[in-house]
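User: Please predict the structure of the protein below. I'd like the answer in structure-token form so I can feed it into my own downstream comparison script.

Assistant: Understood. Taking the following sequence of 205 residues as input:
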Amino acid sequence: MARIGNNPTARQQKVLDYIRRHAQRTGAPPTVREIASALGFASTNAVACHVAALERHGLLERRPHSSRGLRATGSISPGVPILGRVAAGQPITAQENIEGYLAPDSFLINDAESTFVLRVQGDSMTGDGILSGDYVVVRRQPVAERGSIVVAMVDDEATVKHWQADADAVRLVASNPSYPPIEIRPGDGKMVDVLGIVTGVFRRL
């Protein structure tokens, strides 16, 4: 967003500075309620007005539908976003609420700007060492080679599986033999898209 003419007021600048400090200190932007509490605002409405003004100045960007979606423009990215969860089992409705940020290690993540992290729910990928509760690192890209582990959208639901596509069907294949492949054939009325390729997995001990 391009910056427009007027400079921010002193109160707006305090809000902006706090958002930057909070993101650098914790790895995640503050919520509007946290800003109000930290800076002594009487209500969150006052903070919302300052946030809107900073957006108009081009000094702040806001991710829709996320309580931690504030980002000071020109600031250092807080890290790789952890975006809700993905099913390793039957597909579940996709969630893109930011749960936090992962500080990227350049040895593991070469391109933080095109990478996100999802929390796994389900046990269909245990054959690849991906367990329920693990986090998968995903590189955004719309295509995949046969056999790649992908995060795919089936209509508006997300799942992590091996990608197998040929002329007659797309198959999303689990590595746990208890789960049959998910097949999408022409004429089924379903849409399937690759969100990205799984490039890593980690778990909290």
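That's the full token string. The CA atoms of residues 6 and 69 lie 24 Å apart.
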